[in-house]
Amino acid sequence: MDALQIVNELKTKIDEKTIDLFFPLWKHTYTKTGGTADIFIKPKHIQDLQLVIEYAQSNHIPLTVLGNGSNVLVRDKGLRGIVITLEHFNTIAVEGNQIIAGSGAKIIDVSHTALEHHLTGLEFACGIPGSVGGALVMNAGAYGGETSTVLKKATVFSHSGELIDLEEKDFHFGYRKSVFTEKDYIIVEALFELQPGEHAKIKEEMDTFTALREAKQPLEYPSCGSVFKRPTGYFAGKLIQDSGLQGTRIGGAEISTKHAGFIVNVDSASSTDYLELIQHAQDTVREKFGVELETEVKIIGED
């Protein structure tokens, strides 16, 4: 079944305005790189999402779910089949000490909602550019805080279209991993449990984290954030810096001169530029220090 036929069939099931054929994914990713998605869908309702999942499953069509594109590198030949983004699943609601957020909501916005309601526990997320779904998948964290400390419940779809509620015992959180990566669940909604706090104190901590981020990270360029996981006993950025790699370029991609753990798009980089520079950093650090750098950024798509 070709892409046009799939699109024509899907248009009989869901709002055709939410479907794009041959969508350039560089428009969606934070690196501003990446090839084309055969079919790109932004479902607005949970029923439409379920229909797409079930349709893909029954017709053996590859299905990829992207967050807001902040921690992903899509190869230059793009993604086959159906690609979904849940940016319309962006509601944020507060009930007492709990915040219920759609998977497409920005985790930064959730942290600021917590501030508005004098709730503490999500201060660490005030500068994380990902979606709620992405935060759950990667157990996103910063400045000593992690998603695992505040997540109490998640509603997900399996790839067969079954809606499932998960609780703390089900999450299997670790460093940049979770049950959501193990099972490849499609996250719909998350429930965070926070604690009452003082608005001024919460704001002060968030302001401190924001200032640190702005001072240390190359926010002026497109990037995928921190490229590598933290090796046991080391810091990836320090290893890369000590290898003399800051400022190294391949094509339009550069190892940031501001923070060596970031690769930035300084001149119309391709994903291939990124991948070659990632490999160069891994090879150099291995040769100099005997340490293997493992990517934190999710690399997807066709070679």
UniProtKB/TrEMBL annotation:
The annotated pathway is: Cell wall biogenesis; peptidoglycan biosynthesis
Keyword terms, alphabetized: Cell cycle, Cell division, Cell shape, Cell wall biogenesis/degradation, Cytoplasm, FAD, Flavoprotein, NADP, Oxidoreductase, Peptidoglycan synthesis
Which biological process terms from the Gene Ontology are attached to this UniProt entry? cell division; cell wall organization; peptidoglycan biosynthetic process; regulation of cell shape
User: At the top level of its lineage, which domain of life is listed?
Assistant: Bacteria
**Enzyme Commission number:** 1.3.1.98
State the GO CC annotations.
cytosol
> What is the protein named?
UDP-N-acetylenolpyruvoylglucosamine reductase
- Record organism: Domibacillus aminovorans
